[in-house]
Specification:
276 residues, mainly alpha, MetI-like fold, membrane, transmembrane helix
Amino acid sequence: MLRRNRDPKLGIKVAFGFVMAVLFIFPIVWMLFVSIKPDGYVTTQPLKWFLPPYTFSNYTTLLFDSLILRWLVNSLIVAAMTTILTLIVTSLAAYAISQMKFRYKNFIFIFFLLGLMVPGEATIIPLYEVAKSLNLLDTYAGLILPMIASPLGVIILKSFFDGVPKEVIESGVMDGCSHFKLYYKIVCPLAKPALSAIGIFTFIGSWNNFLWPYISILSETLYTLPVGLPVFNSAYSQAYVLPMTANAIASIPVIIAFLIFEKQIVRGISFTGIKG
């Protein structure tokens, strides 16, 4: 294969890619091996972390005798609901701006563009005051609703909806389709690549979100994993095994999701033009 390829640097590129893959995978492998060591296991020789003895009792202990499983469920609920509501809200807004005619449409779209220039941290204080006045603090609704506004999602979908052939829209109108039917029967099916990309990045962002859950949640039973894990790890600051098991429990669902949706994630990155 190397001879057939005209790129003389292909071998170097393959070797470099292999080395980088090993560097990225090694911490995950090390985490998994440490997580199946007996509780309290300590060694000064790094290679012994990969050798027996092994046990899965750490997983059963954390899943059934701690709040890790509850935090995992909270993260799944919040990430799933945030993703679903974000897709609904952003797609409806993008369709209205793209396909419907009303005054100040371009002006409203500029506001969405300006939303990309405001860092999320700058909105935390007013967001907290609004959530407090609406009694949304320390609730699932308080975790989900503030996160469904996605200016980037509206911009991406609006650009995609603009590319839908006008003949398709006009034929739907001639057949008696309302705007809502045009939205969910014609436009949304054509926008599956864009919706998939936005859904994937919204889910990952919600799963890893730390700042807003940390501020808005007071009860430990409502913690998500990014908030609960530091609390758990602080109680085992001198240990390796149980904190690593907790991190493995938090990472395994994301790793499985990545393996399942790898093609969609790569396609979404290339579609949105997001780098890094």
